[in-house]
Write a sequence for this structure.
């Protein structure tokens, strides 16, 4: 959003937009944490399988 667009939007709309972006950011961070945990789980599982074969 450009500065010129921001100047014509009221405070309530700006707060609503900020709230929406904050919610999206929180969801993205949670999803990233889920993905990182799954990758770590898989990495550990591969290590355990490799150790069991020896």
């Amino acid at each position: 959003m450009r500065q010129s667009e921001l100047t014509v939007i009221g405070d309530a709309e700006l707060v609503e937009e900020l709230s929406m972006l904050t919610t999206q950011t929180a969801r993205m961070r949670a999803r990233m944490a889920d993905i990182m945990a799954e990758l770590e789980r898989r990495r550990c599982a591969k290590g355990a399988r490799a150790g069991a074969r020896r």
About this structure: DSSP finds two helices and no strands in the chain. Residues 11-53 form the longest helix (43 residues). The CA atoms of residues 14 and 20 lie 10 Å apart. The radius of gyration is 21 Å.
